[in-house]
């Protein structure tokens, strides 16, 4: 909990100064951003290798690494100023099960090795599939945190998912039982797609 609180503190100060989050998001950092990222851990098997594509300010990767020390999390982020922030956060919080890779998803090597590839607020589902599914091993999964647009994006981008190697998309809602307090009422709606070829 101390690490999570320290992370929120860094997001709400340095994160705003560097343009990683807007000042209006500060009251919603816990519920809408940090906790709704952490609860996605419900869908991640034990001791998984996880890649967070387009990590930005570290969401969802840093909350996942804090919540689940058994995971190995790689934050993939192309922008240097964001990479600098992520490295500072990891060092300040002493998180040992995480690394930062400055790259675009399509530049990550070796491909096809992750158990789980996560993303949040990065791109439309079809585009995400082209970036994320090649990073997952066969039988691994892409978890795209999508919110209210999930069902619409699944319908619209079904063919892109198949083209990128994915099976049938499933929509899961994470954290409903955990986020019961009124201030923390934003569960995560996640599109889950297994890589089948």
Overview of the molecule:
- The radius of gyration is 16 Å and the shape is globular.
- 35% of the residues lie in helices and 22% in strands.
- The chain has helices at 2-17, 29-38, 61-67, 80-93, 125-132, 150-156, 158-163, and strands at 49-53, 72-76, 98-101, 114-120, 136-145, 170-174, 188-194.
- The chain starts with a helix and ends with a strand.
- It has one domain (2-194): Rossmann fold (3-Layer(aba) Sandwich), CATH 3.40.50.
- α5 (125-132) links the parallel β4 (114-120) and β5.
- The mean pLDDT is 93.
- Strands 3-2-1-4-5-7-6 form a seven-stranded mixed β-sheet, with helices on both faces.
- The protein is built from seven helices and seven strands, in the order ααβαβαββαβααββ.
- It has 197 residues and is α/β, with parallel strands linked by helices.
- GO terms for molecular function: rRNA (guanine-N7-)-methyltransferase activity.
- Assign the structural class, choosing from mainly alpha, mainly beta, alpha/beta, alpha+beta, or little secondary structure: alpha/beta
Instruction: Characterize the largest beta sheet: strand count, sense, and whether it forms a barrel.
Output: 7 strands, mixed
What count of helical segments does DSSP give? 7
CATH class wording: Alpha Beta
What's the structural domain tally?
1
Number of E-state strands = 7
């Amino acid at each position: 909990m101390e690490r999570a609180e320290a992370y929120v503190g860094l997001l709400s100060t340095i994160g705003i100064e560097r343009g990683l989050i807007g000042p209006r998001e500060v009251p919603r950092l816990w519920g809408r951003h940090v906790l709704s990222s952490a609860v996605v851990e419900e869908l991640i098997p034990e001791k998984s290798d996880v890649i967070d594509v387009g990590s930005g300010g570290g969401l969802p990767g840093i909350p996942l690494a804090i919540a689940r020390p058994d995971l190995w999390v790689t934050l993939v982020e192309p922008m240097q100023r964001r990479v600098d922030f992520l490295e500072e956060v990891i060092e300040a919080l002493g998180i040992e099960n995480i690394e930062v890779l400055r790259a675009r998803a399509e530049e990550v090597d070796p491909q096809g090795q992750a158990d789980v590839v996560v993303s949040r607020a990065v791109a439309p589902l079809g585009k995400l599939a082209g970036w994320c599914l090649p990073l997952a091993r066969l039988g691994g999964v892409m978890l795209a945190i999508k919110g209210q647009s999930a069902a619409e994006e699944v319908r619209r981008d079904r063919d892109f998912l198949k083209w990128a190697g994915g099976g049938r998309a499933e929509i899961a809602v994470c954290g409903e039982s955990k986020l019961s307090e009124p201030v923390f009422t934003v569960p995560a709606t996640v599109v889950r797609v297994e890589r089948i070829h």
